[in-house]
């Protein structure tokens, strides 16, 4: 293995370790079951590895690929036996996933109730993407993303106020 290949491999491995749990969390925010999120993320990371030298923004590319894989897996498994709840528990070694599933289960369920365009931008915001990156990811303008984020916040706030769970004005 040459020095350049070794450097690219190390770079990908660092990316995988830091971003795979975040991609799983992103899919969970979008409402996919944990087992689908795990499988779709693994498939997306294989795709990223295969195209590593061609991808300009792998953190965005991986999320988009994972969404596509998750959608296909969900359609494929629609008529299968339901997955046992025990398998949907977060892994102890992935704090990002545990954080999403355990501490924000109410938020995740509320985000999943949002209309699709609002759900996607809000899930990406929760995944620490900047407004400009969300715009690039969705193909919408920054202004449209800002508008959708505002609408999502307002809808979520009204849902939490109705439940008596809203603490603060953000």
Automatic annotation (TrEMBL):
Chain ranges of the RNA polymerase sigma-70 region domain: 15-78
Sequence ranges assigned to domain RNA polymerase sigma factor 70 region 4 type in this UniProt record: 108-156
Ranges annotated as spanning the membrane: none
GO biological process, alphabetically ordered: DNA-templated transcription initiation
Keywords of the record: Sigma factor, Transcription, Transcription regulation
GO molecular function term, any single one: DNA binding
Entry-linked InterPro entries: RNA_pol_sigma-70-like, RNA_pol_sigma70_r2, RNA_pol_sigma70_r4_t2, RNA_pol_sigma_r2, RNA_pol_sigma_r3/r4-like, WH-like_DNA-bd_sf
Keyword Transcription: yes
A Pfam family that the UniProt record links to this protein: Sigma70_r4_2
Top-rank lineage group of the source organism: Bacteria
Similarity field: Belongs to the sigma-70 factor family. ECF subfamily.
PANTHER family: RNA POLYMERASE ECF-TYPE SIGMA FACTO (PTHR43133), RNA POLYMERASE SIGMA-70 FACTOR ECF SUBFAMILY (PTHR43133:SF46)
Name by which UniProt lists this protein: Uncharacterized protein
Species: Amycolatopsis vancoresmycina DSM 44592
């Amino acid at each position: 293995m040459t020095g350049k290949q070794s450097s690219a491999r190390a770079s990908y491995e660092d990316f995988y370790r830091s971003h795979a749990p975040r991609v799983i969390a992103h899919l969970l925010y979008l409402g996919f079951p944990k087992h689908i999120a795990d499988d779709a993320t693994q498939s997306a990371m294989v795709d990223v590895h295969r195209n590593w030298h061609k991808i300009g923004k792998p953190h965005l590319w991986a999320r988009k690929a994972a969404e596509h894989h998750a959608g296909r897996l969900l359609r494929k498994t629609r008529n299968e036996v339901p997955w046992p709840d025990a398998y949907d528990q977060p892994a102890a070694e992935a704090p990002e996933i545990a954080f999403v599933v355990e501490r924000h289960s109410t938020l995740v369920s509320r985000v999943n109730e949002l209309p699709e365009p609002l759900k996607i931008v809000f899930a990406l915001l929760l995944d620490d993407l900047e407004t400009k990156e969300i715009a690039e990811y969705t193909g919408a303008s920054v202004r449209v993303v800002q508008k959708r984020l505002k609408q999502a916040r307002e809808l979520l706030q009204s849902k939490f106020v109705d439940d008596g769970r809203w603490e603060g004005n953000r």
